Amino acid sequence: MGNDLSTALKSKKNGILNNKNSDFNNVYEINHRKSSMSITRFPVIESNIDEENGRHEHLLKVWGSNFFSPIESILESGDAKVLEIGCGFGSWIYDMAKNYPLSHFTGIDINNPKYATLPNVSLTQGDVLEGLPYPDCTFDYIHFRDFLWSISSKDASNKLFPELVRILKPGGWIEGIEFDVNILNVGPNTKFLNDALFNHIRNNGIHPEEFYNNISKLFKKHNLEYQVEERILCFADHDLSKKRFVTFYKTIKSMILEYTSISYKKYDEILDKSCVELVEYRTSYRSIRYFGKKLIA
Ligand SMILES: C[S@@+](CC[C@H](N)C(=O)[O-])C[C@H]1O[C@@H](n2cnc3c(N)ncnc32)[C@H](O)[C@@H]1O
């Protein structure tokens, strides 16, 4: 099987593959690109509603709560103003707005968010790297999820976080859940898919190996008093995790096919084999939750 794949990967496509080595581990080396790549934006992945609802269901089950910051009382009393950046279709917002009908929820996404239609929800289309269209000290709580890998580390640090801190009230909270792209105990087909994804990420100025530490650095650098929680999730133990893995790799299929020379059909076969491997190898990943408070000046 490894040989089949190595052969399939021999041709160079779009100047991205450096096929000096047919070893499964090395076929994806990227040719060095110009340094300007370090600030290139990561292309937006077109999500779909099923994938997003699956992600929401899954994360809620794993973490047991939609938030960890101590905001329950203001959410209940109705004083809370909440923002989610990169809200997607708004499945998190919809759940929160239903649970806390007296508080107000705002979502912003570069794609037009339109799912969470409730009276206490406002959804806006916008690129968060173009500045956030809200006055200083507006929100009590800002949330993001599976978002930071959509933008470069530089943009997160120089453009996004200063804006988040600006629009957050003193004493307000910022919270994010991200998954560590360095998945653990991978079989060969899973590694193939993951390496292609890594190359896409690297090619857009994000270093997957540093991702976990970078988020902590972001909170520290922007003077947020933060805590980190982590869960290790084994795909074999959660049907929803496996479902999410498949929908995720289906969603990004055409994007990461650019980094291989395999056909659509072959990709599907690899994905099927990878699903079997998830159980066989007990493949796992880390889900990391960061929540930090803006200090009162
Ligand atoms: C992986 S999805 C997460 C969606 C949602 N937060 C969730 O957890 O279900 C990342 C979202 O970020 C959005 N996004 C990426 N870059 C963005 C940007 N620069 N400004 C606003 N939204 C962006 C994408 O359109 C996508 O909906």
Automatic annotation (TrEMBL):
<dbReference type="GO" id="GO:0008168">
    <property type="term" value="F:methyltransferase activity"/>
</dbReference>
<keyword id="KW-0808">Transferase</keyword>
<dbReference type="InterPro" id="IPR041698">
    <property type="entry name" value="Methyltransf_25"/>
</dbReference>
<dbReference type="InterPro" id="IPR029063">
    <property type="entry name" value="SAM-dependent_MTases_sf"/>
</dbReference>
<dbReference type="Pfam" id="PF13649">
    <property type="entry name" value="Methyltransf_25"/>
</dbReference>
<dbReference type="GO" id="GO:0032259">
    <property type="term" value="P:methylation"/>
</dbReference>
<protein>
    <submittedName>
        <fullName>S-adenosyl-L-methionine-dependent methyltransferase</fullName>
    </submittedName>
</protein>
<feature type="domain" description="Methyltransferase">
    <location>
        <begin position="82"/>
        <end position="172"/>
    </location>
</feature>
<keyword id="KW-0489">Methyltransferase</keyword>
